[in-house]
Write a structure and sequence with these properties.
Blueprint (H helix, E strand, L loop, with lengths): L16 H10 L11 E8 L7 H4 L4 H17 L2 H15 L3 E5 L3 E6 L7 E5 H11 L4 E15 L4 E14 L8 E9 L4 E5 L3 E5 L2 E9 L2 E9 L7 H15 L6 E6 L13 H7 L3 E2 H5 L27 E6 L5 E5 L2 E2 L4 E2 L5 E7 L4
Parallel strand pairs: 1-2, 11-12
Antiparallel strand pairs: 1-18, 2-6, 3-4, 3-6, 5-6, 7-10, 8-9, 10-11, 12-14, 13-14, 15-18, 16-17
Helix pairs in contact: 4-5, 6-7
Length: about 350
């Protein structure tokens, strides 16, 4: 999700079926679990279903009220529980050991002008966990980072509250001798964008990071997840957040696997900022580029928001996996359009990597 960015409506014309079929021929069997020489990691921005453009573009109280109603309708129309069921289906097929999630958004409502609102309207993370459980899959939430949290009264007779969250999931059905987690940490970046609007006033937009140490047999690494600031915020804020993250991760003596929505195009073109250079200069390798040096690998945007548009050809690679001290055996994109349900899983592709563990 880009905070206020609007994209044109262009029909999506590049199906992923052939690529998916080819991958199925290559992929190692699911029985090759973590602790057997290979770890599977998955990156996915879940898509909050709105860029809040209807709200942030308000110029007076009337347009703000109209924007609030449009936003609530847009979120409802995105069919969050059904989209999270699609994500659960992909997780069932790929069986990642670790999952990094952004925009695991929680929407709540409450009595008018009586904060805090507590009645859940849509909970993307809980919907995903329910869908995983319904499929007999064994995953647990490792950590949740609560970020942007705002509540406003609406003309619909209730307060509307949105809480942005990042999260990490891990498998729970692996033997402790093969797969253990410890030392969970998380935080908020000091560098922070403060959005200004004549109607809304000044609104801080916190972004954060989270890490967990992973033991795979005799090998170990630190797994990290982040969601950096997006346009139209000044790019120096995003670069400062990346610099903070590199300082945080510099203390790790073990290899690091860093996933996230970096909101910085890793390739040349629009929204290419020094952010990725900061990460590469800290000793990380861009896993997609290492495996697919001649493939742009665009992951965003798959469709438009504010207003919703049915499809766009992606033109930025902002959903990234970086590795330090490890290499990727294979990296590929997930997500996209699900013709059977007629839904986009997200406006972002996911990214999946098989990462071999060093033999010590």
């Amino acid at each position: 999700m880009h905070f206020t960015k609007t994209v044109r409506s262009i029909a999506r014309t590049l199906p992923l079926l052939l690529m998916s079929a080819a991958l199925l021929l290559w992929l190692p069997p699911h029985s090759q679990a973590a602790g057997k020489g290979m770890v599977r990691v998955m990156q996915q921005n879940m898509d909050a279903a709105t860029d809040l453009g209807f709200i942030t573009s308000a110029t007076d109280p009337k347009s703000l009220m109209i924007g609030l109603v449009k936003t609530i309708q847009e979120v409802a129309a995105s069919k969050i529980p059904r989209r999270e069921a699609l994500l659960a289906e992909e997780i069932a097929n790929l069986q990642p050991d670790l999952v990094a999630l952004q925009e695991a958004t929680l929407y709540r409502k409450g009595p008018l002008n009586q904060p805090p609102a507590t009645q859940v309207m849509y909970d993307q993370l809980q919907s995903l966990m329910d869908a995983l459980q319904n499929r007999g899959l064994h995953y647990a939430v490792v950590a949740v980072n609560n970020l942007f949290d705002a509540e406003v009264p609406t003309p619909l007779g209730f307060d509307f509250r949105m809480t942005d969250r990042d999260a990490m999931l891990a498998r729970t059905d692996l033997a402790p001798s093969d797969f253990t987690l410890s030392n969970v940490q998380q935080g908020i970046y000091q560098a922070q964008w403060v959005f200004g609007n004549p109607v809304l006033g000044s609104i801080p937009v916190p972004r954060g990071w989270m890490t967990v140490d992973v033991q795979i047999g005799v090998a170990a690494f630190r797994f990290a997840n982040t969601h950096l600031e997006s346009p139209p915020a000044p790019s120096d804020i995003q670069v400062a957040q990346a610099t903070e993250l590199m300082q945080i991760l510099s203390g790790a003596t073990m290899p690091v696997v860093l996933l996230g929505d970096f909101n910085a195009n890793a390739g040349a073109g629009q929204d290419h900022y020094p952010t990725t250079d900061v990460i590469l200069e800290a000793g990380f390798v861009d896993a997609w580029h290492a495996v697919h040096p001649f493939d742009t690998g665009y992951t965003w945007p798959l469709h438009g928001e504010d207003p919703y548009t049915s499809g766009t050809p992606p033109y930025e690679r902002i959903d990234l996996i970086f590795l330090r001290g490890l290499g990727a055996a294979w990296v590929f994109k997930t997500g996209g359009w699900h013709s059977s349900s007629g839904l986009w899983l997200s406006d972002h592709n996911g990214v999946f990597a098989y990462v071999p563990m060093p033999e010590l």
